[in-house]
Predict the structure.
Amino acid sequence: MKVLVAVKRVIDYNVKVRVKSDRSDVDLANVKMALNPFCEIAVEEAVRLKEAGTATEVVVVSIGSKSCQEQLRTALALGADRAIQVEAADQLDSLSVARILQKVAEEESADLILLGKQAIDSDNNQTGQMLAALMDRPQATFASEVVVEGESLKVTREIDGGLQTLSLKLPAVVTTDLRLNEPRYASLPNIMKAKKKPLDVKTPDELGAQLAAGVELLGVEPPAERQAGIKVSSVEELVDKLRNEAKVVA
Amino acid sequence: MSILIITEHDNQSLKPVTLNLVTAAQQIGGDIDLLVAGENAQAVADAAAAIAGVRKVILADNAAYAHQLAENLSKLVVELAEGYSHILAPGTTTGKNVAPRVAALLGVNQLSDISGVEAPDTFKRPIYAGNAIATVKSADPVKVITVRGTAFDAAEATGGSAAIEACGSVHQHADVSFVGEELAKSDRPELTAASVVISGGRGMGNGDNFELLNKVADKLGAAVGASRAAVDAGFVPNDMQVGQTGKMVAPELYIAVGISGAIQHLAGMKDSKVIVAINKDEEAPIFQVADYGLVGDLFEAVPELESRL
């Protein structure tokens, strides 16, 4: 079974996001960038499938400018076998990304395509579903457990109110939720080895992918700040305030 | 303009988030139709038809839609999409599962989790876990959108008398099947729909101590939530998690107990109307967003709170 993992370069999740003073976008100048945490979980899952002898090859792909090669190298250090960078604008829209991934998946004849459920910058949660639709293949989003059973997958999904289990015939698309696994840290020898693993660069044109009309970003603003209220000295005072001031308790 | 709303339901009852979507649709403007795709879901269609402001309800009643699998539901929606300017789904795990599939099949992009309507083609939506709010404009011929329910008031559940139209189309993808589900059973309201939420964090110490919160919740008719720290520590199941990677809530009253107030938690509850924090650490960031803060031992404060309510 061949596994394709799509990864995205995003702002490091520990960095506090600031809006540019002209409010055109968030400020990403000189900000630490990293592999999107959900994508990291997807890479880890693929590598575990390979270690278990289920997956034969793990290919990682990222779409963006040359800088995303840094995240591809991270994925290679985590255990992926080879990488593909598709040269395109950073922050490409989801449908264009899905169309490119469709072409890559076809070219690679991938049996399982793993993605993070969402990127922590745009918070879209769309690409995996779009890819599955374009390929007319089954999907399991918000996955918290993936079991390979021959030509099928049994996937447990974290849905509102509990868990749902689906059976999918391969090829299939799975997007990862937080509790699917805990990604490993790349060891220094593996980081060194990753530098020698193959990394191909392709363009959407070469792949035959047609880009979509994106969504126009008109502006970005900081969220409304909440003001700190008062400290109460006792539970009695708290209940009094809730009853008579805020009037949220009968 | 006309708008199709994909309703959220469990084949028996309509989920309240649908009412918030009707309000979002009214702000966009135009005729509003509701799609109920399910199995033996007549009661849901009846409830949908009673919502004020709805033109018609389309009921697709078939085993293929029993679990609203995205593969089947998306093709049904695409078949019905002709003539609609907007297709709305709730920003729930079900809505997010299906809406991008619909958009891709229609060859358009999708807008996720809108929190405001500026114009029929321009919307506000949170990005970077709510640390920034983007204003986005779509030129696509049909706008496929998921809506953050807590950002819109609920429409009136009664007063309407829309016609119910049956749709016999069946789309069944051969390569996906439902195996089972484990839903948390509770007499309390659902987290995202509750008007009062009381949540516990790592300070609760263990899962058994959540019983203290349950007692308060029973008195207030509240839902019980948790921070990611409490979930990761194994105190409670993940479906109780409030925050960026869990559920987004915006109740009238939110009580945070033993929660320090990490950004990831604040992202999920800072739109609550009134926030109460009970924490022994007076430097905890949760106090910076709380309307009423009580510095003290939760194991004394919570039982006292229960007795005084």
Q: What stands out?
A: The two ends of chain A are 60 Å apart (CA to CA). The longest strand of chain A covers residues 139-149. The mean pLDDT of chain A is 96.
